[in-house]
Write a structure and sequence with these properties.
Layout (H helix, E strand, L loop, with lengths): L7 E3 L6 E3 L9 E2 L2 E2 L1 E2 L10
Antiparallel strand pairs: 1-2, 1-5, 3-4
Amino acid sequence: MPNQLGKRYECKECGTTVLCTKAGTGAIECHSKLMDLQQPRQLPSSD
């Protein structure tokens, strides 16, 4: 899967987070394992 511009990737082993600033066909790895695409954080309610 190509890297997606503006997406954050997270290492489950050490917690490192990487922000993709340039899309490409490579893979982001940490500890010789592919990093997972981080899910968007929910914004707090404005109520």
